[in-house]
């Protein structure tokens, strides 16, 4: 009889533990899924900033060259 009670308690304990593990896993997955979109958005924003920066640098370089060409053309005339 005592042996049956011990086995029963052990089984109940195992069942309780098994119920908790999936709950923890689900919570972890939910937390991760919340973080992933945030990370993706941050990456896109960073990439966008880099593209804008390169574009601006390119425009600045182009604008520096245009007056130089104009001056050279005037000098040739």
UniProtKB/TrEMBL annotation:
<feature type="compositionally biased region" description="Basic and acidic residues">
    <location>
        <begin position="9"/>
        <end position="19"/>
    </location>
</feature>
<feature type="region of interest" description="Disordered">
    <location>
        <begin position="1"/>
        <end position="77"/>
    </location>
</feature>
<dbReference type="InterPro" id="IPR039286">
    <property type="entry name" value="CsxC"/>
</dbReference>
<feature type="compositionally biased region" description="Basic and acidic residues">
    <location>
        <begin position="26"/>
        <end position="64"/>
    </location>
</feature>
<protein>
    <submittedName>
        <fullName>Uncharacterized protein</fullName>
    </submittedName>
</protein>
<dbReference type="GO" id="GO:0043592">
    <property type="term" value="C:exosporium"/>
</dbReference>
